[in-house]
Amino acid sequence: MDWFYEWVAGIHWVHFLTIPVFTGVVGWLINWSGLFMLFSPLHFKGVRIPGMRELATILPRKVQEVPGVLQGGIGWQGIVPARAAKMGSIAVDKAISKLGTPAEFYQQLEPERIAEHIVESFRPEVPGLVEEVMRREHPRLWRDLPRPIRQAIIDRVQSQLPSVVSGITTEIGVHIDQLLDPKIMVIDHFRDNPSLVVRIFRDFGQRELNLMVAFGFVFGFALGVPVAVVDSIFGQWWLLPLMGVVVGWITNALGMWLIFEPPEPRRILGVKVHGLFLRRQAEAAEVYARIIAEDVITLERIGDFLLDGPSGDRTRQMLAHSLRPAIERAAGPARGAVRVAVGTRRFDTIRDQVAQEAVGRTLTPFRDPEFSRQQSDKIQVLIARRTKELPPRDFVEMMRSAIREDEWMLYAHGAIMGLGGGFLHLWIFGVA
């Protein structure tokens, strides 16, 4: 034990004791600034460098992953916002696709209520729609028709609306798997609204994220003790900066591990350990479901996707096909005489034009924000229930997907700050 007493007697205690304090403070700063790097800024901030875009193509893949590099800039964008679209893709693959098929989402929206809302909203527009098309396609015929007959045609179209619209909503339900792609909906919406992805983390995980920052000091301080011991034994100037790199890297890695691992409760050295996010999966499921139901998979966005998405043309053709027979029947017993009077081609043109004009107006109620909000509760219940049932590993992957491949940037950032902390201590207190 003589060596121990000799070592203790030779320690410069101010130098020794300040090392854990330094590593603790640096650990706190590492996790605090790492949290900032995760979420801010929402959009790329930096400068464009001429020739950088071309140079980026030959740089190592890891360097290309740094936000802005492939776009020819030097700067930063929060890791989560920068990978919003990717998180959307993985969220669908890992979770949303397991939460329900497009048909299940559609059934949750109660097609019968949608049909009623469409009829209620569309009925007042029928007279103007018929007038508009008839005046454009055959103004003389429409002008010459007695007013009672014109009104009878309009009344017939309106009277057939409930059965026609019910058929349309049923038809959409039958083909919804081909018309609606939740993955594209989610990816596009996450990419266009990176703040939404940040909100998913913040709304239910802010407490855990704050705890990670606080643990940065604990981890840093704990790791600083062996660093101080090694430094006091060897007393080399390069030891503190070198070990600062190791401490900074490990501090960030432990912070990420603390949040996401292990996905299921486990005992390590007799202590129960469980990822902080996973401990509140049920609560997180409610928050996640509310955000998805209110902002991502809504009746309003489903209507937009059906008409303007990749399958929009098919949706319009299907709706027009469903509307044509009703419009043709609107002429009633006089249909044959009207067809002869205006000519078969012109009659078919009028029918098709009314059908095409009606397509957009038929799904307009989908885009009613108030009605969409009323229906979102149904989707929220479905998503919350299924998210709670997700295996913990899938839930972790859904939340971590946006940052997994870029975590090395956080660790590298920790290592650089640890290096700087080591040099700062060396500058203030010198070599042990």
From TrEMBL:
Does this UniProt record's set of keywords contain Chloroplast? Answer: no
Q: Does the keyword Endoplasmic reticulum apply?
A: no
**What organism is recorded for this protein?**
Nocardioides marinisabuli
Q: Where are the transmembrane segments?
A: 12-39, 209-230, 236-260, 408-429
Please identify the protein, giving its name as recorded: DUF445 domain-containing protein
Organism superkingdom: Bacteria
Database matches in PANTHER family:
UPF0754 MEMBRANE PROTEIN YHEB (PTHR35791)
Q: Which UniProt keywords apply?
A: Membrane, Transmembrane, Transmembrane helix
